[in-house]
Amino acid sequence: MELYLDTANLEHIDSVNKLGFLDGVTTNPTILSKEERPPFDLIQEIDRKLSGKIWYQVTGSTADEAVEEAIKVANMCHNKVVIKFPFTLENLEGIRRISQKGIETNATLVYSIPQAIFAAKAGSTYISPYLGRIDDAGGSSIQFINDVKQAYENLGFDTKIIGASIRNAQHLVDLSKNGIDALTISYGNFEKMLHNTMTDAGMEQFQEDWDKIKNL
Ligand SMILES: O=C(CO)[C@@H](O)[C@H](O)[C@H](O)[C@H](O)COP(=O)(O)O
């Protein structure tokens, strides 16, 4: 399973990237806007720090604009890029044209089986269903992921599914039970999920007991 950090914050990227198991970072206009810097400078700085894939979301509204933006970003990065296309008719053409150039693609904001099928037909490497937002709207994210997996298996597509908008540990429990190709987690949720009160209590006890004997 591929694991991505859903951030463009350089400190957060450093602190997880040094662990050595990160497959890259995922960004979108919202994530980039939090850093309040020129976006392409920031993408290039992330590229210098990282060994992994950089996911960049195109903002153009026509296929030609999106393709031009995708090629510009692919050319400015040394790492492999994954170009994210919000799901629109124009962007299905963008996905096909960029995929044909051998650059990985992602259809993002995918909320239905027809959208998942059309993205796969366009040749998308990945699709990103937003688990948290599906659940917020009263749907079942895990049911949706399972339905897409079943559809892809039945129809013979090898498009991968990346779980996005992961909000809590239960999402990871569900995805691990059912299988997922990739997932992306914000730094805040990654940090939260590292901790467990029983681990903390156990550590405190070990430290206390060690302190009693370490100077004997
Ligand atoms: O789509 C991808 C990765 O493909 C993510 O970057 C995705 O945009 C983010 O996970 C979401 O924007 C975060 O969602 P939320 O927590 O704001 O609902």
UniProtKB/TrEMBL annotation:
Protein name as annotated: Transaldolase
Question: One Gene Ontology cellular component annotation?
Answer: cytoplasm
Tell whether Glycosyltransferase is among the UniProt keywords: no
What PANTHER family is this protein classified in? FRUCTOSE-6-PHOSPHATE ALDOLASE 1-RELATED, TRANSALDOLASE
CDD domains per UniProt: Transaldolase_FSA
One Pfam short name: TAL_FSA
Q: Which UniProt keywords apply?
A: Cytoplasm, Schiff base
- Entry's localization field: Cytoplasm
**Which Gene Ontology BP annotations are present?**
carbohydrate metabolic process
Q: Write one Gene Ontology MF term.
A: aldehyde-lyase activity
- Xref: InterPro entries: Aldolase_TIM, TAL/FSA, Transaldolase_AS, TSA/FSA_arc/bac
